[in-house]
Amino acid sequence: MKVVKKEEKQKGITLVALVVTIIILLILAGVTLNLTLNEKGLFQRTQEAVDRYKVAAKNEEDMVVAFGNELDKYIGGENVEEGPKAEESKSYEGYYADLDGNPATAEGIVYADLAVGKEGQWNSDDWSNYKYETTTGLKSYVIGEAIKSDKFGNKELPIISEQKGTSGKNRFYVMALEDLDDDYHYWYYNAYGKLDKLEDYKTDINFGQDEPKGKTNTDYMISAYESHTPYGEPYTSGTYTDLWGLASLKQKVNEGWFVPSRAEWSAFGDMIYTKFNIDTSNYDSLGLKYWYWSSSQNDAYYAYLALSYYGFMDIDSVNGRILVRLSATF
């Protein structure tokens, strides 16, 4: 009887194991090849997964854009669908003005449109003459839906807004829809008899060129008032206060507002007179009061004021007590 050596037995077992391993690998290779190449193979399933991912990503992107557009309607973002553009050949006097980027509210009403030059007078009064030239290189604007404002007689009017991303010069002059405050103020109490030194800052009937006349006057008078020269110290001994020292005025000036000039007030008065049939009997229907200071002086003793009650410009002593309403451009 032949005795199998231990070493030979181990070699036989190793050979069998190798053959079994090769067979198993061949089987697995066939299964893998079948999964890869058949109708729902690995390649196809991978491609389907990629396609599903792309569809999901696109849906998510569309949803984000839609959400952004809806949100921008309330916060004034860049994706808001804007209305029709304002035409340069048409005047938009009498439209509400959106100055803060929220087309759902109005801060003022347009009384001069520099795209269409104009001259006239408020209620046929010589002190109420005004004129502004047609200007080019203006910003672009869009027209929104009609809204109501209880600060302007609850009138329903279209609102105009600056087109986002536009550049150029401001096109519109607007009057605020409410007074600066409910108080009466001196123009400059201690400047009585000294305002002839302000000759260079008096306004004529023209406005609309470069910086608004009212802004030039307002900036100068605030500076002069703060320096107390050459027109005297602030008046502090009475109940009423000087216009140019008001903290509320300075805040609004920093936001772009100013006290309108004589001509700018005249253009506003003419606009409401011709567009809204506002006269001496119904001016209060627009929330207007009896009288308002302008930023223009007449002489060393008097400054111009807008008289809603009479429907024209007049003068009063600089230590008279009058209300204040502001203007702006945009």
Tell me what the structure shows.
This protein is α+β, with helices and mostly antiparallel strands and 330 residues long. Among the domains are: 96-176, no CATH class; 185-329, no CATH class. The chain is 31% helix and 20% strand. It is built from five helices and 14 strands. It has helices spanning 6-37, 42-75, 213-227, 247-254, 262-275, and strands at 96-98, 108-113, 118-121, 129-132, 141-149, 155-162, 172-176, 185-186, 241-242, 291-297, 302-307, 312-317, 321-322, 327-329. The strands form four sheets. A six-stranded mixed β-sheet has the order 5-6-1-2-7-14. The radius of gyration is 38 Å and the shape is elongated. Residues 1-11 and 76-80 have low confidence and may be disordered.
Rounded mean pLDDT score? 83
- For the biggest β-sheet, the strand order reads 5-6-1-2-7-14
Radius of gyration: 38 Å
Q: Spell the H/E element sequence.
A: HHEEEEEEEEHEHHEEEEE
Most strands sheet: 6 strands, mixed
Report the span from N to C terminus. Answer: 117 Å
Q: What is the quaternary state of this protein? A: single chain
How large a portion of the residues is in β-strands, by DSSP E? 15-25%
The total count of strands amounts to 14
Identify low-pLDDT runs.
1-11, 76-80
